Amino acid sequence: MAIIATDAVLHEAHRDNHTHRDVNGGWLRPAVFGAMDGLVSNLALMTGVAGGSASQHAVVLSGFAGLAAGAFSMAAGEYTSVASQRELVQAELDVERRELRKHPKDEEAELAALYQARGVEPKLAREVARQLSEDPEQALEIHAREELGIDPGDLPSPLVAAVSSFGSFALGALVPVLPYLLGANSLWPAVLLALIGLFASGAVVAKVTARTWWFSGLRQLTLGGAAAGVTYALGTLFGTAVG
Length: 243
Hints:
The chain is mostly helical.
């Protein structure tokens, strides 16, 4: 009895520590990319305008324009991209569905051969393939996973991707504008807050990846800071040339 109880505890511990995060929901990539892009692009835009000796009003206006234009552009791009990918997957699923309907035995043999190639004993592989092929929808799901590497029931949503991208970009782009809304009259508080935001967002992303928080934060800080520095220099150069 003691051994059985111990086994039960081990199984429960294994179950609790063997859960996986959702990596196919379609929201994480556009949300992360949107926030990073919003921070970097709007900071770069504002520093470029400021580098050209523009007025404070022009810098703030460029920040709001960049926020609006970038958020809508990101949302439209993500929606179109994910919708196109989803339509491609649906087309391939239709092909597989027709093949299962027209040539069920060939598809069953194909599945058995795939399992054999992975080391399953031939007789057992054929029996497994036969049982899995009895339900057409289950057979479609198995073939989609094995041949296409997708889960038909867990395809990314274009709407989720678009909304995630829009909201996160707008939030990220708002960061360098915020100091001006709170009364700042120079660019540097906006730059400082944006750089802090870049490091923080990079550190937060590390929570859902394998990277350490400080590495991810410093990487994003370096990339964003470099972009801002380059655009400020270009703004200064072009502003002087135009002037």
